[in-house]
Fold these 2 entries.
Entry 1:
Amino acid sequence: MLADSKKKILYEEKLYKFAYFDEVTDLANRNMLNNYLEKLIQNSNETDKFAVFNIELDNLRTINDTFGHDIGEQVVIKSVDILSELMKNCCFIARVTEEKFIVVAPACSDSKKIEERAKKIAESFKHPILLPGLDIEALFVIVNIGIAVYPEDGSDVNTLMKNSDLANYEARSTDDRIVFCSDQLKGRVEENTLITHKLFNSLQNEEFSLEFQPQVSCISGKTVGIEALLRWTTSDKKRIPPDKFIPILEQTGLIHNVGLWVLDQALLEHNRLIANGFPPLRVSVNLSVVQFRKDDFVDNVTKIIEKHRVDPKYIELEITESMLSKNFADTVDKLVQFKKMGLNIAVDDFGKGYSSLHRLVLIPFDRIKIDKSIIDNVTFEKKSANVAKIIITLAKTLKAVITAEGVETREQAHFVRDIACDEIQGYYFSRPLPTEALEKFLKEDGTGVRG
Ligand code: C2E
Ligand code: CA
Ligand code: CA
């Protein structure tokens, strides 16, 4: 009888441990954390504040993959030692996922002190973790720390945890390893969520349109090409800038259909202009790296071109160099197919960020577009002027044509023309225009109607 009740108690203890503690570290798990936070909030006065540190071991997965789970586990245990030592029993520590810890600091309310503490945590992980028997000199753990403060970042457990996650996500995706949750961050996430919802129906609801920005020849002064730029006006008549919605189109995969729609509409415009008596203008469309991931991308592009019967020599596809970093071979393969079809390829935003000449020589392209950030400074900074000249020499050596982008002033236009740039695109000549305004512009700049 006695043995039975002892067994029962042991069993219940085990069950309790399993429900509320992490097996590897003996720390509290998520359930225990929730209970703790709920009690803490219940017992808080109106003026009480406390901080939640959401700490992620950023490279634990890589450590697991490289050295095996046993080593990974030891790294986790060592990390707990570091955290416990630092918090000296003043905080509550929980392990909520394999690579994530939550530290609650009840007596920590002043944001300066909170930041100091976060910095201390980050610093204590700057030393290598030494493990007996491991045959490498130093194993470094990278931590990201997101911070949410009660009650401003959440007066209930769920909101508080969600916002600490948000701050941690931001810490992971930017170079700042410590990020406080802020109204700005919350606002941005809310806005993005809203945009994402709205985008799903935008194509069917005909909320997208195109504007066209003229590309002017430095020799003739006439428009020789137009770049199609996507515009989105929501059902409540708000215009959302492409920098905000295109990344979401990419994340959601909606870019596949929208990208093809852009090509379709751009070719429609090319033909419309010819039908209205204008000479054929080269039309360029921007491609996103995501579009290249679909096997039927080349086929779909081919179908659209055949449907509109546009001579491929009037079509240009703009790619950015950064998009070549992933699946390089496959992207190049698709670009080669486009080239074989007679389409032109332009390398967009050249000189913005890092440019790999190694990659550049391996891809087929006809044009380099010098990025606005270089053009901005050409007339008052010798360095930028020289960079522009070098890019032009490079392009000519590689037998490519050069367009200067974002040209806003007369001085910039003269400068790029004098260094033998071929074409100019920028507010100096024209902003991107809807179709009617484009026709008006073409008539005025002498690209006008034939005959
Ligand atoms: P981008 O391809 O570099 O396009 C040029 C951007 O520079 C356009 O901004 C244009 O309005 C702006 N711009 C042109 N000249 C000037 C100037 O003189 N001064 C200034 N300040 N800006 C100038 P926009 O239309 O906001 O487009 C932003 C980006 O969105 C584009 O940069 C492109 O990367 C992307 N985008 C636009 N349409 C599409 C599309 O259909 N598909 C994809 N994948 N991306 C697109
Ligand atoms: Ca472009
Ligand atoms: Ca550009």
Entry 2:
Amino acid sequence: MVSPFDRGFLFAHAAYEVTAVYGGRLVDFEGHMSRLDRTLTGIALPNPLGAEGWAKVHRDLIEFNNLTEGLIYLQVTGGAYGMRDFAGPEEFEPTVFLYADTKQLIGETARDGVRAIFLDDMRWKRRDMKTTQLLSQALAYRAAREAGADTAFMVEDGQVTEAASANAWIVDEAGQLITRELSSSILSGITRAGVLALLEGSGLTLVERSFTPEEALAAVEAFTTSAGAMIAPVIAIDGQPIGNGKPGPVTRQLQRLYYQAMGADVAA
Ligand code: PLP
């Protein structure tokens, strides 16, 4: 039972994580758990479990659900304390909720790509914390669907911040990878970090900087990274094809490297 007075429900006072499971194994688990710890500290909640405790609940969920490919969702909220009270008690007793979800991570989206729209980034200023304040993103997905697209590239001060629930990347004409540098303007994606780690020795060069919507439209390739969709090619934005409108060779190379690193025997 979760009380309707739970601070997660009333104030979105909650941290969450989504970890990919492939071949029954957790992908980049330590990265997700250290980001959870950072978010919890940022929103004044104690971490209810240690590293070993979290690993065990995740492993148990995988086992109980026979999960081979999918996601584990985890949420830690501020808990419930009688009536609605903005500040809440001195010390919080968090509510913890997890579930396992079967999902094809290397499937149609990875193969065919997604369409995006540009949208004003209306979120609060601490996007580096992974909280359940997701109304902007929920509305962004609805706007994308209405426009016949799948996701949004969000824009602030003339620069793309990130995608609705993923980090945004482009490949310019010189073949350079460009993705926004880490700051409180974007979430520090665990998949983003995983891709960065694979670049050494790949022959690909990276520039960490923000880019404009015009640069995205002029890019030869674009893609997003997230635990839920891994590396998803972006084939069009606002109805305009990116490159030739098909997933490009750099995206494919990164997909192969990423899948290999997590032990998958698949070529996208
Ligand atoms: N940016 C936002 C706003 C997100 O919601 C997400 C994932 O949900 C990401 C980036 C990608 O993060 P990760 O690779 O850790 O899933």
